Amino acid sequence: MKKVFVLLFCLVTSLVLQAQIRGNNIQVLVQPDHQDWTYKTGEKATFTVSVLKSGTLLDNVSIDYASGPEMYQDIKKSLVLKDGTLKLTGTMKQPGFYRVDVTAHVNGQDYKGACGAAFSPERLQPSTVMPKDFEAFWQQAIAEARQTELNPTKRLLPERCTKDVNVYEVSFQNMQENYRTYSILCVPVKEGRYPALLRVPGAGVRPYGGDVWTASQGAITLEIGIHGIPVTMEQKVYDDIYNGALTGYWEFNMDSREKHYYKRVVIGCIRALDYIEQYTPWNGQSLGVTGSSQGGFLTLATAGLDKRITFYAPVHAALCDHTNSLRGIACGWPHYFYWDKGKGQEKQIEVSRYYDGINFARLITNNQAGWFSFGYNDDVVPPTTAWATYNTVNGPKEISPYQATWHFWFQEQWDEWENWLLKQMNIKK
């Protein structure tokens, strides 16, 4: 009887664990009348708003909505939808994105939906200006950093290793003595020379697990942290640092191109490539970089500055077109000049051009293949800047927007992203 009880207990526990909370019974949909969410300038877009409960329209629901150019919506209203639905229209005379945000208030809870319609996005152009010494500044910074030896460390993480992949925590010096970049290195167990992939992180402070799966397919992967601290500590340590010393780190030293926080970060990405070249069994041919959000920016920076990169994949890249807000158009995260339109920030505006993903994208060449993806509903990295960044690149490139995503990705988007990376490395699944 005891064994039977234990088996029943395990079964019930398993069922409980599988019965997870998913989604909401209340849904707010904002749907455009073009399947691809794309229009020509001057064309009228019609949006259908639906508030659903259990998949059916909800009667007498209170909503607030805002519509207009993204980040600069000029129509804001509150009303009650008697039958749970509403039609709205919008247009744009210039290339850009017209966004509709809807918040429904049901039983004391707020539920949100949105739609960002594209108007001639292939014509979007950035505002940021490339400083005449942009490339020279960065190449000098890289040359100065390389005067410091990498002096790497390497520690096996046996609990993370698999039969096919060895996993290590590694570190190497960045811009100066004892100024380190910490990373997770994954290398196939089988001896040989392999393509390599650098993974660069989104914003925040966190530990990293390494890209074991891609390594298991036959590639070297290096996933780096950017803050000069080990990447295998307990989560609470990172939470304390993020809420303490590194709160708002992306705004540190914005008025100095030499001391700007992202200088050591960008240099760290290049030194990571040095590490791959010197201390891993890289095949010397196929070398890629990828990341999302802040990692999308770092992807562009790495590809633009280092021609060892043969392929790159930025997903909803942040830190692009900072100065767009100076002309009243959506700008990239972290929206440096959005709130006061740059008043009294002349020095910061000048420095921002050295840390703008657009200017790194301008350095990408025909020998580097790119894959871009982002969402039209993203309210962190506006698709206005994502499209303008894509339009800036002169080399071979592909674009694959997933319109309904916000600042995340769907499973299909992730799968396409991963498959593209494997294809570039000539790895078959």
Please sum up the structure shown.
25% of the residues lie in helices and 28% in strands. It has 429 residues and is of the alpha/beta class.
Describe the structure.
- The chain is α/β, with parallel strands linked by helices.
- It is built from 10 helices and 18 strands.
- The protein has a 9-stranded mixed β-sheet, sandwiched between helices.
- The longest helix is centred in the middle third of the chain and has 19 residues, at 261-279.
Per DSSP E runs of 2 or more residues, the count of β-strands stands at 18
Mean pLDDT: 94
**Structural class assignment:** alpha/beta
Helix content: 25-40%
Gyration radius, to the nearest Å? 24 Å
Task: From the structure above, extract its key features.
429 residues, alpha/beta, nine-stranded mixed beta sheet, five-stranded mixed beta sheet, 18 strands, globular, disordered N terminus
Strand-helix topology:
Blueprint: H1 2-18, E1 26-32, E2 38-39, E3 45-53, E4 56-57, E5 61-69, E6 75-81, E7 85-90, E8 96-106, E9 109-119, H2 134-145, E10 153-156, E11 165-173, E12 180-188, E13 194-199, H3 212-216, E14 220-224, H4 235-242, H5 261-279, E15 282-292, H6 294-305, E16 311-315, H7 346-352, H8 357-361, E17 369-372, H9 383-392, E18 397-399, H10 411-424
